[in-house]
Amino acid sequence: MTTAQALGARLRHLRKARQLTLSGLASLSGVAVSTISKIENGTLSPTLDKVLRLAEGLDLTIGQLIGDDDSENMSPNSRFAPSREGDGIVIDTKNYVYRYLCAELTNKRMVPIHARIKASSLKEFGPLERHGGEEFLIVMDGEVVVHSEFYAPVTLGRGESIYLDSTMGHAYVSAGDRDAEVFCICTEPQRLEKDDETEPSQPA
To answer: If we measure between CA atoms, which residue out of 140, 143, 136 comes closest to residue 166?
Structure first.
């Protein structure tokens, strides 16, 4: 089974476990019914934007959506998860090849990603992506042009980095004659804790 097929089967299982229809998950996540259907059937590899939106729609972290259930109850204070070369969950999309590292940790506050950037122009990339949280990216090899919704494009060389608000439309494209290699850390969208959902007590 390919990674896309495995992720699709997991997404279908999680959706049905919550008794959600395709249209129900589409309403909660903002991802089109046709896109969800293709992902579940293993014919479409979802971008990070789509993965995060689907996780949020299912009220899960990205680790819980793509990771391993066995570590669900691991205490956050006992985290120690080395990642070796070749480890991780690989998702190959039109613009990026993502390698999600330490995917077995399901309740992470950060999402570490080793990626190869395939798109070489904004026209080739398509619409800007946006999702909850923030992200930090450092270029490991090649050159990257960072396009964003509100700022002029910025070119980054090897060893250079950028920190940005992921809710702002953004895209990374390779500027050189080969695919750029980057490392990115994304934070999960902020979620309200149960205690935060209650109305604060009023002074007497």
So the answer is: 136
Tabulate helix, strand, coil % of the chain (nearest 5).
30, 25, 45
Give the tokens for residue 155: 């070119």
Q: Which among 153, 173, 109, 133 has a CA at the least distance from the CA of 49?
A: 133
Q: What percent of the chain has pLDDT over 90?
A: 50
> What CATH architecture applies to the domain 3-65?
Orthogonal Bundle (1.10)
Q: Which of 11, 58, 19, 61 is nearest to 36 (CA)?
A: 11
d(CA 90, CA 112) in angstroms, rounded, equals: 12
Torsion of CA 115, 183, 112, 43, to 10 degrees: -10
Extents of the domains making up the chain = 3-65, 76-187
Q: For residue range 137-158, what is the model confidence (pLDDT) as tens digits?
A: 999 999 999 999 999 999 999 9
Contacts of 45 (CB under 8 A, 6+ apart): 3, 4, 7, 39, 91, 92, 93
